[in-house]
TrEMBL record:
It comes from Noviherbaspirillum humi. SUPFAM superfamilies: Periplasmic binding protein-like II, Winged helix' DNA-binding domain. CDD domains: PBP2_DntR_NahR_LinR_like. InterPro entries: LysR-type_TF, LysR_HTH_N, LysR_subst-bd, WH-like_DNA-bd_sf, WH_DNA-bd_sf. This is Transcriptional regulator, LysR family. Keywords: DNA-binding, Transcription, Transcription regulation. The keyword Transcription applies.
Length: 300
């Protein structure tokens, strides 16, 4: 007999009949009427080619074929219940799991430290692997399972097949060393343009502030072009250069070195940082836990 011809629901009927040895009681256990249970039992007998349960002077009794099937059927049903129907749980306190998170280097400074600090206390076996992937490649990495989550500014991921959740609103601010000789808290546009600037241009990503100045036909005197935000702090604290950066990273810098945050004379529209994930992991218990953690830590 071809397994494709077998209705696996009849195994549930068989198990109930073996437990109760009564069509009526077995049907009640399964929520079936007696006619429906009788029809299901007839189908089971036809598929297996054996009466399976027969009436005797002492009630219904299993045939030798039915007795042979008792243990295999129980194993099959238990496998279905435990491995297929039961939703897998994720216990961060005991889990040994690595998550790959797509975020630019600015995200490694803003997001990763707080996630690691939480995990050290509450999820000691969870590892975070941070990778920097450009926006077009981020979608492919999430869809293939190469990455579990993307955190940051990824407008290209606002498309079918992906979910997103807003975390917080961000804007831009200038950073200068604390004792900068000329820049005060509210520089004018002329003062801003008279200074020399440091600019971060990560590979594969466009800085929103750069794009905004280009749209306004404004050019600055750029003396340092960097690939990573992590390099910027030392340069700012040891020179008179000024840098315009997202406010979240500016606050991280301010906690690490003697710098001042200064309002820029031109402010582009605010933007939102989000977390993104692919629909294939939307219901995955481990991914659900990670997303909830990120939201709890960073949602404004």
């Amino acid at each position: 007999m071809n397994i494709a011809e077998i209705d696996l629901n009849v195994l549930v009927v068989f198990d109930a009949m073996h437990q109760h040895l009564s069509v009526t009681r077995a049907g009640q256990a399964l929520g079936l009427s007696q006619p429906a249970m009788s029809a299901a039992l007839a189908k089971l007998r036809a598929q297996l080619g054996d009466p399976l349960f027969v009436r005797t002077g002492h009630g219904m009794r299993p045939t030798p074929r039915a007795l042979q099937l008792v243990d295999p059927v129980k194993r099959i049903l238990e496998t279905v219940r435990a491995d297929i129907l039961l939703q897998p749980a994720f216990d961060p306190a005991t889990a040994q799991r690595s998550f790959t998170v797509i975020t630019p280097d600015i995200g490694e400074l803003v997001f990763v430290p707080k996630i690691l600090a939480y995990n050290q206390r509450h999820a000691p076996g969870v590892t975070i692997h941070s990778v920097a992937i450009s926006s077009p490649g981020a979608g492919e990495a999430l869809a293939s399972g190469e990455a579990d989550l993307a955190i940051g500014y990824f407008p290209d991921l606002a498309k079918p097949g992906f979910y997103q959740q807003r975390l917080f609103r961000n804007s831009f601010v200038c950073v200068v060393r604390a004792d900068h000789p000329r820049i005060q808290d509210h520089p004018t546009l002329d003062q801003f343009l008279a200074e020399s600037h440091a600019v971060v241009r990560p590979a594969g990503r466009t800085h929103l502030y750069e794009r905004f100045l280009e749209s306004q036909n404004i050019r600055r005197s750029v003396r340092a072009e960097l690939a990573h935000f992590a390099s910027l702090l030392t340069i700012i604290t040891t020179s008179d250069l000024i840098a315009t950066v997202p406010r979240d990273i500016a606050h991280v810098f301010a906690g690490l070195a003697p710098i001042r945050l200064v309002d820029p004379p031109l402010q582009p529209p605010a933007f939102h940082l989000k977390q993104h994930w692919h629909e294939r992991v939307h219901a995955d218990a481990a991914n659900v836990w990670l997303r909830k953690l990120v939201r709890d830590l960073f949602h404004d």
